[in-house]
Amino acid sequence: MGVLVDHQTLRAPTEAEDWIYRIASMLAVQRMPYLASIVYNLRPVAAPGLGTIGVDRRWRVYIDFDKIELDPRANQPAKGKWSKFEFSAVLLHEANHVLRDHANRGDLHGVGLPDRLAWNIAGDACINDDLDECLAGSNLALPADGIRSASLGLDPGQTTEWYYDKIKGQFAPPPCPACEAEQQSGNDTGDNSPGSGSGGASGTANDSHGTPANTDADGDADGDGEAGDAEQGGGGSGGTPSPTTAPSGSGACEHQTGPPAGCGSGGGGKPFPCEIDGDAGDVTDSGVSAHEADLLRRDAAIQIRNHQGGSGQGTVPAGLSRLAEEILAPPKIDWRRHLRASVKSGLSWAAGKVDYTYRRPSKRTQRGGVILPSMQMPKPKVVTVLDTSGSMGSDDIQAALAEIDGICKKAGLRGDDHKITYVDAAASDLQRVNSAKDIVLTGGGGTDMRVGIDLALEERPRPHVVIVMTDGYTPWPDTPPHDCKVIIVIIREGITPEDVVDAGGRAALDLPDWAIATAVDPTDV
Fold first, then answer.
1. Beta 8-9 vs 4-5: how paired, if at all?
2. What pLDDT is stored for residue 385 in this prediction?
């Protein structure tokens, strides 16, 4: 299976190309050993004529080996080629794109196709700032004119999202006159899909090195490449395009006159026209799956954390340190989902309390006419205890009421199935609740939720589930109520379910360990 790249086809690297790729990978891991799981899982694909290096979402690295000095013994690369040290630094650049998950982060940030180049450039700024810090004092070095925060005129140490929000709209691809002319004449060759990426720049637009597309990197037109492409960066190393005028190839249409802009879909940019969809047979495999990528990122984060403060070669840039902590941090739990799960857990426990009854005799009888009891499953009875003390603000109470309403509707509880009491220092009488609009609040003094729990347990028939909604500033019963599940919902600004549930899933934050605990942030209702 081959994919056209400037009238050439993708292929597996030759023996010489594979050898220099392995050397560059080894040099990269030697300098940043904590990224070994990332670098060694990149899939090299030879892309003659591509004119740059990039990566796709499946971690396949598209490499124009004509841009690289293949002789590992050469002290100086041939004109217009990258040395093995520059190649190694560029591999680290692409590895950082997939490590930082720029492709999916762009999706989550709402980056549209026209702004993909700006997003890619924002990611380049983060990566290259960190690599400059890490590669200092080594043989490895990125091209000097690559994207940095300083080249964008922005402060260092910010996130990709922050940089993107600052430069959004500055790197939109200009229209391609040839495509527009064909469209006007009725020849529909301009496809805006990611695969074809029509609407590329005209031949006079800048290429990914930041120089006119009809000249060499040194600015002349004689083809001698005096300045050498090795110093210019290329799309894969974050070369600097001019704001408002995207490099040629940013649209990747058939009139493209230079290498594609950006680092490919894996860098969060527009897909290269040569990117493989699926398995390419003898060219490369199907790449790294999303699940495998998550595991490899987590392994890299662990290695980064272990490397910090150690005596190993290479430093850990501040940006990667923050990234590692984000990856290894416990996942943020959606309080709505956690609340629903907590209530469902209590209701399922109640519904599962099957008992024997003689109200409906069993159809199965033993010899001698002995009547066997049938089985019954009780319908859950719920009492909600709402804290209306002075420490609970109106927003907190409204948040509680909204969730009570949701609980009633989702669980199908009606009439006597669900009752509510309000508590401060004392407790109100139980009320029948079908909807939050039925609730009339009272109270406003101190807080003792034990009073409300005791009142709830006096209800007959006895409730199976008691839901306590409070800000948490209250004493709790010393012992769990018999044959009843208690769900504690802490309502407090800025709180998350992780704050009230420990690693073992048990209640924390000085809450009783026999209760099911969750939290609601009233500002997020």
1. antiparallel
2. 86
